Fold these 2 entries.
Entry 1:
Amino acid sequence: MKNILISDPTLRDGNHAVSHKLNLKQIAIYCEAANYANVPIVEVGHGNGLGASSLQVGLSDVTDRQMLETAKKHLTKSKLGIHCIPGFATIKRDLANAIDIGVDVIRVASHCTEADITQRHLGYIRERGKEAYGVLMMSHMAPANLLLEEAQKMENYGAEGIIIMDSAGAYLPSDVTEKISTLVEGLDIPVGFHAHNNLGLAIANSITALESGAKILDGTARGFGAGAGNAQLEVLVAVLIKMGYKTGIDLYNILDASDIAEKEIMPSIPVIKSESIVSGLAGVFSGFSKHVKRISEEFKIDQRDIYFELGKRRVVAGQEDIIIEVAMEILKNKK
Amino acid sequence: MIKKRVAIIGSGNIGTDLLIKIQRSSYLECVLFIGRNLSSPGMAKAISLGIKVSDESIQAIIKDPDCCDIVFDATSAKDAIHHWEILEKLGKIVIDMTPAKLGGLCIPAVNMAESIILKNINMITCGGQASIPIAYLIGKLHKDIEYIEVVSSIASKSAGPATRLNLDEYIETTELGVKLFSNAKNAKAILNLNPAEPCIDMQTTIFAKLDNPKIDELKIEVDKMITSIKKYVPGYQLLVEPIYENGKIVVMIKVQGLGDYLPKYAGNLDIINCAAVAVAEQFAINNQS
């Protein structure tokens, strides 16, 4: 029986779905449920991770410190994880405090071709004796050989595993096979996959990742996450049980946790909306969806036009400001 | 006009682009271009221009302290600290291109006069040079600003290794500059590297969270500011004029470079270097003796 490590970013990626407004009570309730279900890693924070509360991406009502302290209190068995993007989070202002609060697992993320910006952060985490992973975001934008080069840099910097994110929900299963097997072959550390469901393939792609050699998977309760959401955790766990994989997660308890999450933290359950399909086709960061919706309404333009234009410009996570510029350009061209 | 003699320490993108700009100056002359490796592309460029070069890092100036009046430090925040300890004793004027924030923060269009009397002038960051003039205007027109945020996106190819290692210092120094010049209580800086091909031009967005925005006055002030920045950074332009959206002022700037060492997309390189040259030239004009 093969072991698979599950990381659950319901309280991090899900924050995108509520414009980063998850409150401390919600964090406490879900942490308790996930902890009871033996989820190995529970990731908590602003959607773009540590230090990312901003006008650009969205302001949280609570601080990173409050979120992490609350989560830590309710996680007795599960490890507390965070997402951290250099360019948003600095070591001094953000990372040092998070480790002091008791974060166990830190995922240092960069756009898929920019791994060298993670060097100092990864080094610092290892110095502090915490678990460090490297994350390549928007990984559909780089070919497999380039992804491997970037992942190897992170491995050299001290990453103990590499997660590639399908941040736009743009992958087909054949893409997953190609990229995951290239990484598995070329790295000495475990490889993981983080799915988004824009094209309805989150579970299928996650399983394809396993079959290609991945050892780490991300999933969230009801798929609660940016845009069309992530791989639905309770479904993923059930499928893994049926396939004979071992996750350490109790089925009944994770089903209960997802019911609790639906009731307590989701204003609406993620579905694949029309604009999410377009977003996936255009290869646009899922975290943009709330902003695109708001700006398209303000400027009275079709969100689908915005997505395709953003895709054409190859914008990356963190470039939310460009949405306004694109909207104004579409408006100008209409006149 | 007697040209002031300058040395450039750091042979990466910033240092090499500075050299090319200084070659055009009527007030400055580069007498020494210093790096650590004679075979780096920047060194090769300097040699091809017939400039005296050294691969001995700060030792080159210690050995020949009288060679120059002004030193541009285009290394890294960490090295700049060590260099300043030496250069201060040697009585050099240092124009610091790194985010080490050892000296006074300088935005030529805002505080040129008070900067050129300093011994160590810090050019903040590329994103700071692009955003702070606008943040300054927002601060001038509005009282008690709670929060200003500046976001820059630059082409991946325009960010060399030192820039990438200095991301944390970039953020800290840009935030300090925004707060200092705008009087906002809190500030945040974000930097994105975008690998798209063809490369994107540098873009900077300034957000200010406030009620009762004075958009019409701001538009007039911003236009004036852009005219004065264009005098030293010709590619500085308004991309989205001041608007008020979702409880915040939004202004977007685009900076195209002159295409000296890196192509025109590298506005980030250009804006900080043009600003530094403008400061050095003003210093040269004021100190003709």
Entry 2:
Amino acid sequence: MTHTVRIEDTGVSYACAPRESLLEGLNRLGLRGIPTGCHGGGCGVCKIEVLAGEFQTRAMSRDHVSDDDVAHHRLLACRVYPASDLSLKVIGKLQRKVCNPASVR
Amino acid sequence: MALTGVLRPGHAQVRVLDLEESVRFYRDVLGLVETGRDAEGRVYFKCWDERDHNSYVIRQADRAGLDFFGFKVLDKATLDKLDADLQAYGLATELIPAGEMLETGERVRFTLPSGHVMELYADKTCIGNGLTEVNPAPWGPQREHGIAPVRLDHALLYGPNVAEVQKIFTEVLGFYLVERVLTPDGDGNVAIWLSCSHKVHDIAFAEYPEPGKLHHCSFLMESWEQVLRAGDIMSMNLVPVDIGPTRHGVTRGCTIYAWDPSGNRFETFMGGYQPYPDYGPLTWTFDNFGQGLDYPQRKLHETFLTVVS
């Protein structure tokens, strides 16, 4: 089964399976020219804040995610896997693309 | 002998977020040869046609990126001389004792104004490439496992003070400038490609506000066909590809950029041309940076400028 992930910045929602990272699901929205980064938790481009919902994570670089970030669910979308419906806001370099109407196909 | 001083890139030590996942990637997908593990838990690899014990070392850490990049020099006398030359230039050096890395002699370590830790060393145990030294076959089974590059070729590093870094490499370490991309106003360089050999680059740097960043380590393939095969293997294994297959205008190298499981970019690369130290550098204006990066598409991919580890 898939979960529904809502981007609070734009109100757009997308489906994401538990084995998919939030970034993989976001990529399917087909935002144009989106710099999705390294997909490995290393570069910090895809930083988001999970506002509500359950999730699991894999290791991500401390250069970009501090203990305080972890405590406040400010994480890298490429390393977060949904375990329920989620809502999030985009806070990394990704934000300019996700939240810019011109990038929506 | 014409090739003296600094011979070549010898080793890179890279941080990974999950060691065993990364070992599987580097060994079975990239197709490096695992040559050892040390008491600290570091895992050592070499490319199949390299003869020294290791060229690429990974270490589990809580952040991705590059620990250090090392060059092999001709001999101990050269190492001592370059150590003295670096100090005379005003850089602090540190001696790392022989054996701190497996099968590796004493290393001279120093930090560049870009924030990158560099090393020089003269000795690393030769273990051969799996082929005989008398009447050798052209290749063996190690060339057929995974992408299987020939050697660690170069690295591109991002950090501040590239002009000072260029002076250290050209005035102390005997490198020469092969190509450069100018700043928008044309007064300086945003990126430089440096050679200590007959290669288009042994190391490259780009101006970036954060110090010590890794853009990519590059692995040499023997042919364009092999680069395309590398792309096939990346897709078969769901490796995230950044750019390519395409050709750089800068260096004329044919390339794929992709990321390891921790977000460290790597390159599978072939081609280029063979510069000599008496060649003047080739220059790209900033408005042609896109062609320099991706000649067919003439595109300055945003990830090239913003995604580093």
